[in-house]
Amino acid sequence: MNSPFIRQVVPIVVAVGLLWYVLKDVPIAELSAQFQQANYQWLFMAGVTIAIYHLVRASRWQLTLQAMDYTPSLFRTVIALLAGAMASMIIPGAGELTRCGTLQRTDNVPIAQGLGSVVAERVIDILMLFILIALTFFLEFKRVGQFLTNLLSPLLPDAYTSGSYTLLLAGSAGIVLAGIAFIYSLVQNQAYRQHPLVQRINGVLHNVAKGFMSIKKVKKPVLFVVLTVTSYVVAFLTTYLLFFASSQTVSLPPSAALTILTVSSLGGIAVPTQGGIGTYHFLVSRVLMLYGMDETASVVMATFLHAAQTAFSLLFSSLSFLIVPILIKQKKNPANDSLLSNQSI
């Protein structure tokens, strides 16, 4: 069985398993009632913030591309970003490659350098996630502690009593060190470095590194920071606005939306599934229980929050797939064509 097949099937199995575990005791009637009784004015406002979120993220990506002298329009950058969002809902991790591939087809931006710019964005996003974690701990220390206790308590006693926890850490450290030593020995081998395949890989990595380093060359660094912070504020507002769409969450504090944003972001990294299916439902339902909701109500609300956000993302992403073929047929960005030609000389 090949690894690409495994990478595609395992997230699906995990998503279905988590979704079944969370929803197995929830009456369908309660789920249906939640959607029927929702306040659609607040849902519409959340849809607007989701659209703004994609616009802000595309604007930020445009800045990193401009640092490498590629100048796709904001509209084309948004379309590429939305195409990537659709792909990530189908195959976890495919969004980055899809959006870069889309921009190459519409504006001749090389995939390798596009991926490099995306990697740079991801590094910044991880830094922002650490800030979110710190802010969440500061505002909701007691609840976060309870959340971690509830999440890990079934695993910790056996691990500690059996000593397997220490063994696991030691084994992991040993594997990492052995891997580093092996890679270092290969790099020092002259014959290995001269191999055509290795040289080709080095060329790709060079372009990726160039894209990554574009973060240092951003012409408007202040705007880049503002757009980064704004994207997280808008993501927070989306969840908070959705609270007002249901009578069960309308009284929750803003800190609950922050906790959900932080926990769901961490869950998406730790257990990546298609569009967060299963992972989001499991983690967010546990967060909502910390704010006084019973298990059934928290699962219903987690399902509602996820479905609302996914529906709007699917709507916008579907429109992008209709527009991409039109953009491909149009004349590509002449400035990018010229830059690509200069690189090949």
Automatic annotation (TrEMBL):
It is found in: Cell membrane. The keyword Membrane applies. Keywords: Cell membrane, Membrane, Transmembrane, Transmembrane helix. It comes from the Bacteria. It is a multi-pass membrane protein. GO terms for cellular component: plasma membrane. InterPro entries: L-PG_synthase/AglD. The chain crosses the membrane at residues 6-23, 43-61, 73-95, 126-145, 165-187, 222-245, 311-328. PANTHER family: UPF0104 MEMBRANE PROTEIN MJ1595 (PTHR39087:SF2). This is Flippase-like domain-containing protein.
